[in-house]
Write a structure and sequence with these properties.
There is one protein chain. Helices cover 38% and strands 16% of the residues. By secondary structure, it is α/β, with parallel strands linked by helices. The chain starts with 13 loop residues before the first strand and ends with a helix. The chain has helices at residues 22-34, 46-55, 74-82, 95-99, 116-127; strands spanning 14-18, 38-43, 60-63, 87-89, 108-109. The protein is globular.
């Protein structure tokens, strides 16, 4: 099992979480795990996310757009699209900003702060 995999809470749905803010990442992990989902990560960089994707294939991913050091999550989103893995965004980025990035355009954006109930509902809907 990967060093990035959290405890299983009875679920088989694997959710990759890419978020660089520790407290937000932990809140996502706790809420998704409590909802019975298996969290891969959280990871805070494109490099860690891409490494994790070499080890585990998630069923879905939750992505923040802006990562540390000015990086954008676009390389991870592109890899997920290549693998046919759906993803949702949990970001404060505007619709205009997202529309200008062909990899992120059209993705569901749950915003920040993220409503955890809506996130879990969206994740379950997209996985089915």
């Amino acid at each position: 099992m990967s060093q990035y995999v959290s405890a299983r809470a009875g679920g088989d749905t694997k959710v990759l979480v890419v978020e660089d803010e520790f407290f937000i990442a932990d809140e996502l992990r706790r809420n998704l795990t409590t909802a019975g989902l298996l969290v891969l990560g959280p990871v805070s960089s494109n490099e860690d996310a891409l490494d994790l994707l070499e080890q585990e294939l998630p069923d879905i991913a939750v992505l923040d757009v802006h990562l540390g050091g000015g990086a954008r999550v676009s390389p991870v989103a592109a890899k997920l699209r290549q693998l046919n893995v759906p993803f949702v965004l949990a970001t404060a980025s505007s619709a205009h900003e997202l529309a200008s990035d062909p990899v992120l355009a059209g993705a569901v954006n749950l915003g920040k702060p993220t409503d955890m109930g809506r996130l879990i509902e969206t994740v379950r809907k997209l996985v089915k």
